[in-house]
């Protein structure tokens, strides 16, 4: 049996929920429909992050001084085994000192007790971006895969961006080795931290917002998530909360076939409802994954700038971003108001 056939066989066993001598993964009965029983997931749509996302990760991992983080670089390919940039990146963005790199592309190594030793004391795991099928090839149905779940069982947090987001679903979207343009490809099994789900990333930046519609229409048991860049969802049990700059699209079968509420009710717009095949959530909004409804939240409106009378010839200072992304203070001459 070649390596590819072996991986596909293991994936098939896991997908139907069997726990046998062929796999160390223990499939446990859960009270949650989609989210983890314990611990937290942070799923980022790629394209960077925000301080709010990192602050939440630091908090859930136990704080800067107590957190023990393992960085998984399989998605980036073999060269990642010799680079420390991912570790330095995480340290810089979180201030956490105890960060360990864990890399392999070998199922036998991933299935060894020696390899998973750092995960046994980890409070958090970070999956970097790249190609999600590489993560599947490296870890599916191994002791390492089981150790990821045990981090959650201990109340830890798993965070991932781009490929590290999609791999957290149970169905692996854009998992073909030939490229991400193939939606359902030669790798279809994710690590399954978010049960009964399919996850897309770089959503609006790459105009992918309609790609999941037909798939969810044919798979009503799955919930679909589409995350734009620098935007994440925090999942604890069956509650999802958006943290980040842009939007997250929710793909639910009933919304797609028109069984849910519509966008206009009694001649008025209802901002939390959609007449289309998906709807968007933004910063601070929450969603009940089990019952598939938006959780009402009080959202503050941004304060509008006050109109002020200014005299001709006055100057003001203003923070602007240069092409390089750096902020600089510049002086601008104010125009007279009439």
Contiguous runs where pLDDT drops below 50 for at least 5 residues = 1-22, 309-313, 320-326
Largest sheet properties: 9 strands, mixed
Read across the widest sheet, the strand sequence of neighbours is 3-2-4-5-1-9-10-15-16
Summed up, the domain count is 1
Radius of gyration, taken over Cα atoms and rounded to an integer in Å? 22 Å
Query: Can you count the beta strands?
Result: 18
Order of helices and strands: HEHEHEHHEHHEHEEHEEEEHEEEEEEE
Overall pLDDT: 85
Percent range of helical residues: 10-25%
Strand content: 15-25%
Briefly note the structural class of the backbone.
Answer: alpha/beta
**Assigned CATH architecture:** 3-Layer(aba) Sandwich
């Amino acid at each position: 049996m070649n390596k590819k056939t072996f991986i596909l066989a293991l994936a098939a066993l896991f997908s139907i929920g069997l726990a046998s001598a062929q796999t160390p993964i223990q499939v446990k009965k859960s009270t949650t429909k989609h989210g983890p029983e314990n611990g937290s997931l942070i799923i980022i749509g790629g394209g960077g992050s925000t301080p709010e996302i990192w602050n939440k990760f630091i908090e859930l991992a136990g704080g800067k001084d107590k957190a023990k983080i393992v960085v998984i670089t399989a998605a980036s390919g073999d060269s990642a085994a010799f680079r420390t940039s991912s570790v330095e990146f995480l340290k810089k963005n979180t201030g956490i000192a105890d960060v360990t790199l864990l890399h392999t592309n070998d199922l036998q190594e991933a299935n060894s007790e020696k390899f998973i030793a750092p995960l046994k004391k980890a409070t958090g795991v970070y999956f970097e971006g790249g190609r999600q099928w590489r993560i599947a090839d490296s870890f599916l149905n191994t002791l390492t895969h089981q150790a990821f779940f045990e981090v959650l069982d201990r109340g830890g947090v798993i965070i991932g961006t781009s490929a590290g987001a999609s791999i957290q679903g149970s169905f692996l979207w854009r998992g073909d080795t030939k490229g991400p343009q193939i939606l359902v490809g030669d790798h279809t099994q994710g690590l399954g931290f978010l049960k009964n789900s399919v996850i897309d990333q770089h959503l609006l930046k790459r105009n992918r917002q309609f790609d999941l519609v037909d798939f969810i229409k044919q798979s009503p048991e799955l919930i679909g998530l589409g995350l734009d860049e620098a935007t994440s969802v925090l999942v604890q049990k069956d509650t999802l909360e958006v943290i980040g700059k842009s939007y997250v699209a929710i793909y639910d079968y009933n919304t797609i076939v028109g069984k849910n509420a519509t966008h206009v009710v009694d001649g008025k717009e209802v901002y939390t409802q959609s007449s289309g095949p998906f709807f968007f959530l933004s910063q601070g909004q929450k969603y009940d994954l089990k019952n598939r409804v938006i959780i009402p939240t009080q959202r503050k409106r941004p304060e509008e700038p006050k109109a002020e009378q200014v005299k001709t010839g006055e100057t003001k200072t203003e923070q602007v971003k240069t092409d390089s992304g750096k902020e600089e203070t510049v002086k601008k001459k104010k125009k007279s108001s009439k």
